[in-house]
Amino acid sequence: MADLNELAELLFPDVTKTIADLEKEYPARNLPEGAEVTRFAPSPTGFLHTGSLFTALIGYTIAKQSGGVFYFRLEDTDTKRTIAGSADELISQLAVFGIKHDEGYFPNGDEGKYGPYQQSKRRDIYRTVIKELIRRGRAYPDFCTTEDLEKIRAFQEANKILPGYYGVYARDRNLSVDEQIARVKAGTPWVIRYKSQGDHDKKTFFEDAIRGRIDLQDNDVDVVILKSDGLPTYHFAHVCDDHFMHSTLITRGEEWIPSTPIHLDMFRALGWEAPRYAHLPVIMKLDHGNKRKLSKRKDPEAAVSYFLETGYPPEALLVYLMSIANSNFEEWSIENKELSIKNFTFSLKKMSLDGALFDGDKLNYFSKEIIAIDPVDSILKKVTDWSEQYDKVLHEKIMANPAYFRKILNIEKERAHPRKDYAKYSDIEPLTRFFFEKDYAEIVKNGLPFNERYSKEFLSSLLKDFADKMIYGVDESTWWNSVKEIAGAHGFALSNKEYKANPENFSGSVSDAAEILRIALTGGKESPNLHEIIEILTEEVVKNRLRALA
RNA sequence: GGUCCUAUGGAGAAGCGGCUUAACUCAGUGCCCUCUCAAGGCACCAUUCACGGGUUCGAAUCCCGUUAGGAUCACCA
C-alpha cells in the first residue's frame, strides 16, 4: 500500500527542502521587546485605494512608534488581475505620503533578509510547506473540476444547506492514497486543499487588537491552498509569509474577520504561533441613504490619485485619515500645532469600530488650514510642481513670472489668521484669473456685474476719479482714505451707519463705491483685500483698467 | 439564508455605573468685525444616546431580546 510520503513525492518531486530548513533560513528577528513588525501587502491590481492608504498609514505608524519594522510584500498570486507596473505605482504613491517601508519589495529589487517579498517568487517556500502538510495528512489533492464544484454548490443551495467544500461535501477529502496517486499519475488536474480539523458546531475565538474578543464558528471548510496554476491562495500565503517574515501584527480590513478561523486553524496545524490581528474599519460612503464601501468605480475619492490630481497637499489627506483613525488626534493637533503627524501617539484601542463615512468637508477644512499656514515660498514651490504635472495653464502663468505669482499667493497670508480660500491647488487658478491681463480681458468681455442703479455716466466718472485720484504705493489706511474721499465726492456716505440713517441723501455707502472699484478691477463682487490687489497689479495696470472702463 | 461585526447629532466622535440636563472637531444657522469674500470672534444646533424589556438607589454606560446597517460564505484578495 502506498503511503502519504509517496503521494507527497509524486506531487512535489522537486521539493527537497523541509520546513525545518526554512526556519533556519528565516530566523526570528532580533528586535527589542514591544517592537511590532507590520506590513503593507497589496495586490498589484491597480492604483492605490484610499482604504489601502489608510491601512498602510496605520501599519507604518505602529511599526515606527514601536521601533519595529514596516515591510512591503507584493501579493501577486492572482495573475489574472495583476496589472503590470501597478506595484511600482503603489510604492511611489505611498512615498508621496511619506510612507516608506524598511524592507520588502522595491522597484529595483528586494531589500531585506526575509524575501523574496513577491509571492509569485515564493513558490518553493509554499510547496515545501505544503509537501510536508501532505505528508502529515493535513492537506490533500482535490480533483474536482469547476463543474463538479458547481454541482455540489447547486445541491447545497437547493437543499438550503450551508454552501462550501466541507465534511461530506468535500468529495475528494477521503480518497485513499492509492486512488490519489492513481489519479495524479493519470494526469488528472488537481489543486491542494487544506484538510480542516475544525468542527462547525464549535466556536473559536481570538483577541482582536482593536475589537477585543471575537467569537466565531470554527472553520471546517477545506479551503484550497494551492491553485492549479501552482500559486497559493491568500489564506495559505498569509499564514506562510507572515510566519516566515515574522510579522507580529496583521493590520487588514474587517472583511477578513470571517476567514480568520481558517488562518488560525492553519497556524495551529503547522505548530506556528499566530500573529495578532487588528481588523480595521473600512471607509464608507453614503449612497442613497445606505452605507457602502468606497468604490473605485463610483467614487473618485476611492483613488488616492484623485487627491493628488486635484491638488490636495498629501499631508491633508494623511491628517484626515488619522482623524478618522483616532478621533483624539484632532484635539492633539490643535494643542500641538507645530508638531507633525509623526509625533502623535496612535492607539489601536482608540479606533472606532465601525466604518467612517468619507467626509470631503472635513478634508477640505484640514487642507485649507495646511495650505494657509504653509509659508509662501514653500507653497509656491508645491503649486509650481503640482501644476507642472496637473495644470498646464496655471504652470505657464507661474513660470512667466514667479515673483508676481508669489505675491498673489501671499495675499493676506503673513498674519495670525491667514486667508483660507484654497482647499486644493486646483482652486487657485480660477480664483486668481483677474490678475492676468488676458483673463481679465475675457472677464470684461463677458460683462461686469455692476449694480444697475448706477448709470453708465455715473460709473464712468467715478472710475475715472479712482484712476486719477487714488493714492498708490502707500499703506492701507492712507489708500482707503483716498478711496473714501473720492467716494464722498460722488455722493457716497462715508460709513454704512451714515448711509442707513438717510439712504435717500446718498448715492450709496462707501461699501457700494468699493464694490464698483472691486468689480472694475477683478470682475467680481468678491475678492481678497482690494488694497493688496491694487498693489500687486501695480498703479499702471490699475489705471489702465479703470480708464478703459471709464 | 447561516455566521460575524457595528449602532451616541447632518459627519467624525468623547464617554468605561453617579462628575453628563452628553466633551471636542467639521458642516449648518445667527450675530459681531468688516470695502466684498475668505478668515476670525461669540452664540445656537441630541433633555438624549436605534427600539423594547431587565439589573441597580442610580444606565448612553451592565444583561436579554428586537430592529437596522455592514462584512463574509471563490482555484479574488
What does this molecule look like?
The chain is mainly α and 550 residues long. It has four domains: 4-17 and 123-280, 3-Layer(aba) Sandwich (Rossmann fold); 290-347 and 357-372, Glutamyl-tRNA Synthetase, domain 2, CATH 1.10.1160; 375-431; 441-549, Orthogonal Bundle (Arc Repressor Mutant, subunit A). It has 24 helices and 14 strands. The strands form six sheets. It has a three-stranded parallel beta sheet, covered by helices on one side. The protein has a three-stranded antiparallel beta sheet with strand order 4-5-8. β1 (37-40), α3 and β2 (69-72) form a beta-alpha-beta unit. α19 crosses α22 and α19 runs antiparallel to α24. It is elongated. The mean pLDDT is 93. The structure holds one RNA strand of 77 nucleotides.
Percent of residues in beta strands: 5-15%
Mean pLDDT: 93
Instruction: Give the name of the CATH architecture of the largest domain.
Output: 3-Layer(aba) Sandwich
Specify Rg, calculated over alpha carbons.
33 Å
In CATH's first tier, which class of the largest domain applies?
Answer: Alpha Beta
What percent of residues adopt helix (DSSP H or I)? 40-55%
Multimeric state of these chains? Answer: single chain
Strand order of the largest sheet: 1-2-3
| Content-based structural category | mainly alpha
Distance between the termini: 107 Å
> Number of DSSP helices?
24
CATH-assigned homologous superfamily of the largest domain = HUPs
Q: Assign an overall shape.
A: elongated
Q: What is the count of distinct domains? A: 4
The beta-strand count equals 14
The biggest beta sheet, please? 3 strands, parallel
